[in-house]
Amino acid sequence: MTEEIRLLAFSAALGFAHVVAASAAGLGQRGGLAWAAGNRESGGQVTGAAARLDRAAKNFFETFPLFSALVLAAAVSGRQGGAVAWGAELYFWGRLLYLPVYGFGIPWIRTLVWGVAMVGIGFVFAGLFGWAGPGSP
Question: Do 104 and 49 meet the contact criterion of CB atoms below 8 Å apart?
């Protein structure tokens, strides 16, 4: 398994962690297990950390399809390594840090780690097309 595919799998696991964190944090505010087991006719609004974790999960699932598509395209086209690997690392570690930083409500750092992940997607894209300069496949 290449490093990029390993990081893609870890990122998928991180997506699962986002869902669990957002669900667990908001359960009490939404009405507990009775709400979770019911038809959820109401949206069950949340506030505070639960709302931040919910927004973090939504943000993750806005970027993960782009990252996934690019990593898979790189794997299929044999463009692994170099900028693609660096980009996968940046994306994964940026997204990993994003969850607790956003959950704890730390501004500026949240934006910084989001930016790191976005730069990671840019690196994967550049590496896929060989725009990463010398040494890229």
Answer: yes
